[in-house]
What we know:
Rossmann fold; 38% helix; binds nicotinamide-adenine-dinucleotide; alpha/beta; three-stranded mixed β-sheet; 325 residues; single chain
Amino acid sequence: MKILVTGGAGYIGSIATEVLLGKGHEVVVFDNLSQGHRAAVPNEAHWVQGDLAAVDEIRATVREQRPDAVMHFAARSLVGQSMDAPFLYLRDNVTQGLNLMEACIEFGVPRFILSSTANLFGAPEALLIDEQYPVAPGSPYGESKWMLERALHWLSETKGLRYACLRYFNAAGASESRGEHHSPETHLIPLVLQAASGQREGITVFGNDYPTPDGTCVRDYVHVLDLAEAHALALDVLDAGNCTYNLGNGEGFSVREVINAAQRVTGVEIPTVLGPRRAGDPARLVASSQRIRDDLGWKPVYTDLDEIISSAWRWHQQHPNGYVD
Ligand SMILES: NC(=O)c1ccc[n+]([C@@H]2O[C@H](COP(=O)([O-])OP(=O)(O)OC[C@H]3O[C@@H](n4cnc5c(N)ncnc54)[C@H](O)[C@@H]3O)[C@@H](O)[C@H]2O)c1
């Protein structure tokens, strides 16, 4: 298939592009480079520098390229920023997604896969969060993804668009040639690895009095290559119906466990300081991915925390400054 990947210069989108190309798909990457890196885009992909905020740019790309499917990774995705600047999310994330959806409807693109998020579930109490768990977004960021999920529902009802909503928990790890490079970096594993390589002094652990075994927050780290596989599987079955899946490793790891694993992997002692809890941080956020396992046979390959961190560490060592643009 020919697939339009928005945000294909970003972390998950560039690795999904790599995996899709490896499966013989043709890929068109559309990205404004606001966060992403041109160097992250595989050479075999067709490159379009464009902004989803500019209706004419995305319309022209969809009209000219006529993709069979769209994977929509492009978005702002900082929970904290969304609390400070909600319109960047409630307006921009939503409007830009709608611009893309409208172009898909106008030019007859039949399939759409949305990058959604665990932030849809706010501060859940269940040990494992499945797709039946009530949606109660934890921030304007999560709300913006929920609004796009609902838009897809209605565009399917009214216009016949087929869609998949894939709700990632914490994406982590790297492929052999692509990895995570955000500015600012807010994700725990790259931060810990920066500390291990001396690029930052240490790590602040935000709260050690949560109701978890070691008192630090527990999260579900799913390898980015496993996420990419889930996209490829969803693409294959979209014609049979719409789907929504929670994507996680199925096992939670605490902040303390991540730091300990990173120390094992890197052989470096990572200094930590204790900070206060961050507002809105749930104690535990772990997915049940039983539905996608049952429906599509998806099975994460990289479930071992040390292995996930090792892949990120290999990439970090080869690219200590990330992508050099
Ligand atoms: N990283 C995670 O752990 C995680 C978890 C849950 C959901 N998600 C979602 O997955 C998607 C990808 O996440 P990521 O970590 O790869 O993010 P990223 O910031 O690395 O990539 C996003 C890409 O989109 C591009 N972009 C942003 N706005 C654009 C616009 N208006 N027009 C064109 N391009 C634009 C950026 O330049 C960037 O290359 C996001 O939608 C995010 O909300 C990520």
